[in-house]
Please model this.
Amino acid sequence: MAARIFHTEGITKVYRTGEVEVWALRGVEIELFVSEFAVLLGASGSGKSTLLNILGGLDRATDGKAWFRDKELTAMRERGLTRFRRDHVGFVFQFYNLVPSLTARENVALVTEVAKDPMSPEEALDRVGLGHRMDHFPAEMSGGEQQRVAIARAIAKRPEVLLCDEPTGALDSNTGVQVLEALERINEDLGTTTIIITHNAGIQKMAHRVINFADGNIASVTINDTRVEPRDIVW
Model:
């Protein structure tokens, strides 16, 4: 069995507005493993994005503990979480967050300039099938191409973990497939632990494991023995 890369104990997240409490997570216990491709599936408000943000060091739990390998994330101060995000985690969001005045190559270089052991922007863009588009600006690219630039930017620092929140949510099925193929190649070629949040039940067929969320906790976990290629997913 692969080594654990993340695990949690009793993770709770409560948002308070005046006297109103919203329980986003209710005692989540989860293990995620090195090099796996995992899908977190569930309706809006089920808690999956909140958990991803805590694992990625973008948010703090109200209660409970979370670890990255043997480091307790929930005990880190802000400076430690910043180093953790910089050195170990790549993020891909639904919206691409590219700098419009920079080319694809320059957008990726923003990360490589601060990373410890980065790949070149050219290599990162080649890995997502955009070697021929690296000198184009975001406005000259399709949505799928812009998302693949965002993936190249995320992987250029050679992260151990790629956290993806609805990476195909703003795309049609054809461009969504291209993005999923890029994520699959990264997982297989580099061994990057890849965790994808989605509402799209079809994407679960790519995963090693599917973790279903409901009402702030894990409802079920399914091991996928018959994974399919992105182009075989029915959207």
In short: The helical segments are 48-55, 78-88, 104-112, 121-127, 143-155, 173-190. Residues 35-53+87-232 form a domain with the Rossmann fold fold (CATH 3.40.50.300).
